[in-house]
C-alpha cells in the first residue's frame, strides 16, 4: 500500500496505533530509515523491530494518552498516523462493526493534536452501516480519501483501509457521543468485550 500512496518516506515520523503483531512497524521502520521515528501503540506488548522504533503500551481512550504520545514523539507532530484497530469480535456483526468504527473515530478525534497539516492517515474499517459517517468525516478533513484493500487482506474480507491524504489540521466533531445503551444489544453471556486488540492480518506494501 505504501508503494502506491507513498505516505511513509525517509525521515518521516509515524504513529502506528494497534501495532501488534508488528507488520506495519517493520514496514515503517525500513521506510523512514535511521533519521526517522516510528511509535507503536497497543494494549499488548510489542517487540521493537528497530532502533528507530518506540513502543507504548497504552489505551488510546485514556485521558493522558495524548501527553504520553507527545512525550515519545518529541517536538512536532507525526507525518502519518496508521490505525489498525479491531474490537474483540463477538460474532455479532452489527455490534462488532459499530465498535470497530468507534475505535476509528477515536483516532480521528486525536488527529489535530498528533498529525501535521498535509499529513496522511491510514485507517482500518469494517464495512457496514457505520462506515459512511466515518468516510464523510474524513472527507471534511482531508482533500483526498480513497478506499483500499491490501494484498494481505483476503478478497472476501469485510475490512478495508481508508487512505486519507493532505490533512487540513482540523476534524469535524461527531454528531453524537456514543452511549453504552446505544450499542447493539448483546447476549447476557458477556461473550463480547469492548477491549481493543490489534488485527492479526499483517499488512504488506503492495
List keywords for this structure.
single chain, disordered C terminus, 9 strands, alpha/beta, 206 residues, Rossmann fold
Protein model, in words:
The protein has 206 residues and is of the alpha/beta class. The chain has a single domain, classed as 3-Layer(aba) Sandwich (Rossmann fold). It has 5 helices and 9 strands; from the N terminus they run αβαββαββαβαβββ. The strands form 2 sheets. Strands 3-2-1-4-6-8-7 form a 7-stranded mixed sheet, sandwiched between helices. Strand 1, helix 2 and strand 2 form a beta-alpha-beta unit. The chain is globular, with a radius of gyration of 16 Å.
CATH topology: Rossmann fold
**What is the CATH C-level name?**
Alpha Beta
Using the alpha-carbon principal axes, give the shape.
globular
Total count of helical runs of at least 4 residues: 5
Question: Reading side by side through the largest sheet, how are the strands ordered?
Answer: 3-2-1-4-6-8-7
What is the chain-wise order of helices and strands? HEHEEHEEHEHEEE
First-residue to last-residue Cα separation: 5 Å
- What is the residue-mean pLDDT, rounded to a whole number? 84
Strand content: 25-35%
Counting structural domains, the number is 1
CATH homologous superfamily?
A: Vaccinia Virus protein VP39
Radius of gyration: 16 Å
Q: Tell me the number of strands.
A: 9
Amino acid at each position: 500500500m505504501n508503494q502506491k500512496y507513498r505516505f511513509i518516506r525517509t525521515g518521516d515520523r509515524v504513529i502506528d496505533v494497534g501495532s501488534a503483531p508488528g507488520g506495519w512497524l517493520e514496514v515503517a521502520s525500513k521506510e523512514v530509515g535511521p533519521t526517522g521515528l516510528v511509535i507503536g501503540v497497543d494494549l499488548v506488548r510489542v517487540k521493537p523491530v528497530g532502533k528507530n522504533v518506540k513502543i507504548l503500551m497504552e489505551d488510546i481512550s485514556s485521558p493522558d494518552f495524548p501527553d504520553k504520545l507527545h512525550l515519545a514523539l518529541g517536538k512536532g507532530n507525526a507525518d502519518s498516523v496508521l490505525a489498525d484497530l479491531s474490537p474483540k469480535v463477538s460474532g455479532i456483526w452489527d455490534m462488532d462493526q459499530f465498535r470497530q468504527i468507534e475505535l476509528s473515530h477515536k483516532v480521528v478525534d486525536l488527529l489535530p493534536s498528533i498529525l501535521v497539516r498535509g499529513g496522511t492517515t491510514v485507517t482500518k474499517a469494517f464495512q457496514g452501516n457505520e462506515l459512511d459517517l466515518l468516510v464523510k468525516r474524513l472527507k471534511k478533513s482531508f482533500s483526498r480519501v480513497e478506499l483500499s484493500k491490501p494484498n494481505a487482506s483476503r478478497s472476501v474480507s469485510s475490512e478495508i483501509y481508508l487512505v486519507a491524504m493532505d490533512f487540513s489540521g482540523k476534524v469535524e466533531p461527531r454528531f453524537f457521543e456514543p452511549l453504552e445503551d446505544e450499542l447493539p444489544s448483546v447476549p447476557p453471556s458477556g461473550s463480547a468485550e469492548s477491549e481493543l486488540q490489534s488485527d492479526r492480518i499483517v499488512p504488506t506494501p503492495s
